[in-house]
Structure formats: structure tokens, C-alpha cells
Design a protein that fits this description.
This protein has six helices and eight strands. The protein is an alpha/beta fold and 148 residues long. 34% of the residues are buried.
């Protein structure tokens, strides 16, 4: 069973912890600058906790991180995780700027890890209907990968 850390223990972190646990992969470590939130989730899932996200990312026992923090921390945490060989689930938006998105992608490629951004809206029926009404989108690519 992989050891996963959840960075950011607010509502989204709670949701991911519950989903992972239901899949049989309860998080091993919770990190939040609000130690009480990290401790609360850790007690529910019999996990460790810290108030230092970087310490959680660098933990040698952690194989993957879920980054569920404020948007301005996504890039530095994701880059740190990639540099330490951690696979990444990154809440949307990936980052606040295109430059930071590219920095994350470069770190992921150099680190040889997998990074997934939580773009779930394309599964919603309203989003599918909008796509149907819009017609053919403009083709694009980002770091050599298709954007749509």
C-alpha cells in the first residue's frame, strides 16, 4: 500500500482523505500550517501529522502527495515534491501563472514522477453540454501534451 501525504487539511483535504480511505489507501501523513486541522484528520485515519508541509513532502516514507492548499502554494509544493521523487495529485488550478505551470512540468519531467491535476468538471453533465454547444475547440498543446 502506498504511503500518501495530504498537504492542506481543509475541506478538500478532508474529502480526498475520505475517498482514499474508501479505496483502501488511507493517508499516512497529514500536513497543515494549522496543526489542529492536521491533528484532527490524523486522529480519524490513525496517521501522523505535522504543521510543516515541506517536512511532509521530504519524508522518506511518503511516496505521493495530495496538494490541497491555497493556490499560491501549488507551484512551490509541487516542485519540491517532484524534486524529492514524490508522485503528485495537485488540486486545481495547477498554478497561478503559465510560468509556474511550466516550472511544475519541468520538475515533474526531471523527477520522473507522475503529476495529475484535479480537473473534474469535464465529467459534469453541464460541462459536457457546454462542450457540445461550443463545437470544435481550438487545438493547443502544453509541454508537448494536448490541452483538451
Amino acid at each position: 500500500m502506498p504511503n500518501i501525504a495530504i498537504i492542506g487539511c481543509g475541506l478538500i483535504g478532508e474529502i480526498h482523505a475520505k475517498c482514499l480511505s474508501e479505496l483502501g489507501v488511507p493517508p499516512a501523513l497529514f500536513a497543515d500550517v494549522d496543526i489542529a486541522r492536521a491533528q484532527k484528520l490524523a486522529s480519524i485515519y490513525s496517521a501522523r501529522f505535522t504543521d510543516d508541509p515541506i517536512k511532509a513532502i521530504r519524508d522518506p516514507n511518503i511516496e505521493a502527495v495530495y496538494i490541497c492548499t491555497y493556490h499560491d502554494t501549488h507551484a512551490p509544493f509541487a516542485i519540491e515534491a517532484a524534486q524529492h521523487g514524490k508522485h503528485i495529485f495537485l488540486e486545481k488550478p495547477m498554478a497561478l501563472t503559465e510560468k509556474d505551470c511550466r516550472r511544475i512540468m519541468n520538475a515533474v519531467q526531471q523527477g520522473g514522477v507522475v503529476c495529475m491535476t484535479g480537473f473534474k468538471l469535464h465529467y459534469y453533465s453541464l460541462a459536457r453540454k457546454a462542450k457540445e454547444l461550443i463545437g470544435q475547440p481550438i487545438e493547443c498543446s502544453f509541454a508537448g501534451m494536448p490541452c483538451g
